[in-house]
Amino acid sequence: MPQRLPVEIAVQDAEGVRIALEEGAARVELCQALGLGGLTPSAGLIESAVEASAAVGVAGFVHVLVRPRGGGFVYSADERAAIARDIRLCARLGADGVVVGALDEDGRIDLDALAAFVDAAGEIDVTVHRAVDAAADPVAAVAALAGRGVRRVLTSGGAPTCAEGVDGLAAMLRESGGRLELMAGGGVRPDDVGTLAALGVDAVHLSARRTIVAGPGGPGGGSDGYDATDRDVVARAVALASAHSIPLVE
């Protein structure tokens, strides 16, 4: 039997987790600093998200972005070790999966780093993030993930946004051959869901952000505003995705 096309929401706080649960999202990518592309969230936020999903009986909901900094995806040995430690912490805190990625100096998937990340994850899901879109050959980067313990890949098809990356997404689907799930993400708006579903992607991902102006941060306080999850955008995306289905994998 088919199931509806899953929607994943990138969220940065407990309220975002709650909105995603209440509006029927399939899962969240839990992170902070979306303005930098997303960084590893706090242990307290991970615990809160796990407790919230458990309270309403939603399985497989909390997937944690593990990324120590912005500025690209080529990591030092110390950074790779820190990522592996954070992955193990996520698993201990009850996360359902982690979202990771690394490139080598030549712009290819860093397979040694990836193997260490998969090993650290143990039994929880591993998603590779949009590091693939920064690779020298994004389609080859996705194809290289098959058979390496990765469940899914988040990608815009190698373009700045999914709307611009339709051809790349189609090529990735062909090259991966169903050996891993392909989740379309990158500048996705609810109105893009139908087009992406028609391509045959396995899920869609969006941040559904709006900016709240909170007033002057003061010296050292940073920005005067912050991002929040827009309930209406989440609800619309889930409603549009519900009109599309994918095969149910036993």
Task: Describe the protein's architecture and organization.
This is PF03932 family protein CutC. GO terms for molecular function: copper ion binding. Keywords: Cytoplasm. This protein has 250 residues and is of the alpha/beta class. It has one domain: Copper homeostasis (CutC) domain (TIM Barrel, Alpha-Beta Barrel). The protein is built from 8 helices and 12 strands. It has helices at residues 14-22, 43-55, 77-92, 111-121, 138-143, 166-176, 193-199, 231-241; strands at 2-4, 7-11, 27-30, 62-65, 97-100, 125-128, 152-155, 181-185, 203-206, 209-213, 225-229, 245-247. The strands form 3 sheets. Strands 2-3-4-5-6-7-8-9 form an 8-stranded parallel beta barrel, surrounded by 7 helices. Strands 1-12 form a two-stranded antiparallel sheet. Helix 3 links the parallel strand 4 (62-65) and strand 5. Helix 1 packs parallel to helix 2 and helix 3 (77-92) runs parallel beside helix 4. It is globular.
Arithmetic mean of pLDDT: 93
CATH class equals Alpha Beta
CATH topology: TIM Barrel
Q: Classify the beta-strand content into a percent band.
A: 15-25%
CATH A-level architecture: Alpha-Beta Barrel
The major pleated sheet works out as: 8 strands, parallel, barrel
Biggest sheet strand order reads 2-3-4-5-6-7-8-9
Q: Give the termini separation.
A: 10 Å
- Helix-residue proportion: 25-40%
Q: Which structural category fits the helices and strands?
A: alpha/beta
What is the CATH superfamily label? Answer: Copper homeostasis (CutC) domain
- The total count of strands amounts to 12
Order of helices and strands: EEHEHEHEHEHEHEHEEEHE
Query: For the CA atoms, what is the radius of gyration?
Result: 17 Å
Domains, number: 1
- Helical stretch tally: 8
InterPro entries: CutC-like, CutC-like_dom_sf
Subcellular location: Cytoplasm
Protein name: PF03932 family protein CutC
Keywords: Cytoplasm
